[in-house]
Design a protein that fits this description.
The protein is an alpha/beta fold and 263 residues long. It contains eleven helices and seven strands. Bound molecules: S-adenosylmethionine. S-adenosylmethionine binds next to helix 6.
């Protein structure tokens, strides 16, 4: 019994230390050595090929979101309606390509015209492309190295823009800039859908959330306090937006949907 407890304890310590190193510690080291490259906010777990390979396991991806991953992905996918036939879909930031795979399959099955997937990190793009190319849905996908704060597409060129857990990893001004860029490239009548952290209702979740953010996700606090997507969209873009929010896991997560009302 004691041996089992010791093994669990040691394993937990290894996992926590690993994630501290590849997230928080990596940001501190980036901030010293990478000041001018615009990628100093990127955790090593997203930029290093070996770390990507090591971390991209279903159980890990699921555990990072306290086993809400499937529920959140399913909700985003359900919000992709009406029909995707002939539609153009943009996914802003792909990480390990698991959400991309799900989106691509849905788009392929409903006859979408194009799925454009981008990320700021080349290794993430290559990893996602390799994953999707095993799949029939790859036919309608293209992959780009792009910055969410400066998307190289024309105004109003996509019917759907999807963002899965990007904002909480960006410094505040990049959060706002990337939301406005997503709004810019969306067609009138189109939908912007994002999944993200949200301020939980219960104080115990708020205290544990703050501790989690302090340790691993230094920019995530702003998702609770300062980043008001409804307000930014309606006050800082040229359109009106109809927004809805679904909360999950005691309010700890949200799926936010914004429809761009034609002028
Ligand atoms: C938490 S992951 C997002 C998860 C991902 N959207 C998915 O589908 O699983 C953060 C990702 O955002 C990317 N990223 C960070 N800053 C970015 C930016 N300015 N533009 C585009 N991608 C960015 C990182 O490289 C990483 O792949």
């Amino acid at each position: 019994m004691f041996l089992l407890l010791e093994i669990v304890l040691v394993l937990s310590l290894i996992v926590v230390t690993y994630f501290l190193l590849v997230t928080r510690v990596s940001l501190i080291i980036n901030s010293i050595f990478q000041k001018k490259r615009g990628t100093s906010h990127i955790y090593w777990v997203y930029s290093n090929r070996f770390l990507i390979w090591l971390t991209d396991r279903p159980i890990i991806i699921s555990a990072i979101l306290f086993f809400n991953y499937k529920r959140l992905v399913n909700t985003v996918v359900e919000r992709m309606n009406p029909s995707l036939e002939g539609k153009r879909v943009l996914q802003a930031s792909c990480a390990f390509g698991n959400f991309s795979q799900r989106i691509a399959e849905k788009c392929m099955s409903e006859g979408a015209r194009k799925v454009v997937i981008f990320d700021l990190i080349g290794n993430e793009i290559k990893h996602t492309q390799r994953k999707l190319e095993k799949n029939n849905a790859a036919k309608i996908c293209s992959y780009l190295l792009e910055d969410a704060i400066n998307i190289a597409h024309k105004n109003e060129s996509f019917d759907y823009v999807l963002i899965f857990f990007l904002f909480h990893e960006l410094p505040f001004e990049k959060k706002v800039a990337s939301l406005k860029e997503a709004a810019r490239v969306l067609k009138p009548g189109g939908r912007l859908i994002f999944a993200e952290f949200h301020k939980p209702a219960h104080w115990i979740l708020r205290v544990s959330g703050r501790c989690f953010f302090k340790a691993f996700e230094p920019y995530a606090n702003e998702m609770w306090d300062d980043f008001n997507a409804h307000q930014i969209l309606n006050e800082e873009t040229l359109h009106h937006w109809k927004t809805t929010k679904n909360r999950f896991f005691g309010g700890n997560y949200q799926v936010f949907t914004a429809e761009k009302i034609p002028n």
